[in-house]
Amino acid sequence: MELLKQRILQDGKVKPGHILKVDSFLNHQMDIPLLDEIGAEFARRFAGVPVSKILTIEASGIGIAAIAARHFGNVPVIFAKKTKSKNLDGDILTAQVTSYTRGTTFDIQVESKFVNPGDHILILDDFLARGQALLGLIQLVQQAGATIAGCGIVIEKGFQDGGELVRRTGVRLESLAVIKEMSDDSLVFAD
Amino acid sequence: MELLKQRILQDGKVKPGHILKVDSFLNHQMDIPLLDEIGAEFARRFAGVPVSKILTIEASGIGIAAIAARHFGNVPVIFAKKTKSKNLDGDILTAQVTSYTRGTTFDIQVESKFVNPGDHILILDDFLARGQALLGLIQLVQQAGATIAGCGIVIEKGFQDGGELVRRTGVRLESLAVIKEMSDDSLVFAD
């Protein structure tokens, strides 16, 4: 997605530890017209694929998924929670996720009643690096016996193994910008 | 907002401890057309008030704010973070927030560069109960020397003191549904 790549080159900042800061437009401050273009692009890529709900994970995925839903017939958006909440009860779908960035392991959770066997779930998130969060979301959908329509990612760090791990599950993965390599003074996209 | 009140009566569930579960449409699964109506109602209530950015707090406020932004000329949306992240650097606006629900105290944070003295900030969130998160967001904006356009809340628990505390600061507060009292088998709205 050319518009997105240009924006990453213009406003993204590479930090030590392979961290790409895109917080001025994607995951701290959100550029709403850009999110709308991102949603439209996901809809183009998944054209013809049935989608009954969108699943994402708090926090950065939520804005992306909410705006994208408008391009998928206004389907409901569910966000998986990373912390136990008094608000969560009933049957819970859960998966363990390791965050290499934070050096922690945590459970992600969705109330079972929101994901049903007849659902076609599109999973959206902002970043794909080691793939642990995305694999966790895939597990949640599989636990519920629902169909995975596919996974849509805004920025994939193609030099890490997450994309490979997700594709190996057989799930269709569409990343709008894939970074082949990055260092303090350069950032190269795949293709 | 009548549509919202009807939805709360239809799908909300009151749990012990004055907890109102609205997770089937607002803060776990999100009903996007409803969020769009909510955004439109905020825009009606704040018509004529300059708004250059919307500020909310992760996680439940993000979807509401992202969709609402479309009704405020697509202004950028910033979400305050509740946890320290490697992605946060530079100058930080911070305020301490006590969560009575979780029994914890934590810092909320926004990178200073996103809130400037010339900004007119509309603060949006899903719930207002004891008002601590909202007062923290107000503090962040005041630290930056920006103008507060107002606060928009989807559901205010009118029987708790948050609304009074916020109004006492002189900031304009618009709540789309104010609950006067609630118990296991009844829920009464104000006005």
UniProtKB/TrEMBL annotation, chains A, B:
GO biological process: purine ribonucleoside salvage; xanthine metabolic process; XMP salvage
Positions that bind xanthine: 20, 27, 157
CDD domains: PRTases_typeI
Chief site of localization: cytoplasm
Listed SUPFAM superfamilies: PRTase-like (SSF53271)
GO terms under cellular component: cytoplasm
Occurrences of domain Phosphoribosyltransferase (ranges): 53-158
Binding-site residues for 5-phospho-alpha-D-ribose 1-diphosphate, renumbered to this chain: 129-133
Subcellular location: Cytoplasm
Reaction catalysis annotation: XMP + diphosphate = xanthine + 5-phospho-alpha-D-ribose 1-diphosphate
Coiled-coil regions listed in the entry: none
EC number: 2.4.2.22
Pathway field: Purine metabolism; XMP biosynthesis via salvage pathway; XMP from xanthine: step 1/1
Keywords: Cytoplasm, Glycosyltransferase, Purine salvage, Transferase
Record-level Gene Ontology MF annotations: xanthine phosphoribosyltransferase activity
Similarity annotation: Belongs to the purine/pyrimidine phosphoribosyltransferase family. Xpt subfamily.
Function: Converts the preformed base xanthine, a product of nucleic acid breakdown, to xanthosine 5'-monophosphate (XMP), so it can be reused for RNA or DNA synthesis.
PANTHER family: HYPOXANTHINE/GUANINE PHOSPHORIBOSYLTRANSFERASE (PTHR43864), XANTHINE PHOSPHORIBOSYLTRANSFERASE (PTHR43864:SF1)
Subunit annotation: Homodimer.
Entry protein name: Xanthine phosphoribosyltransferase
Organism phylogeny: Bacteria, Bacillati, Bacillota, Clostridia, Eubacteriales
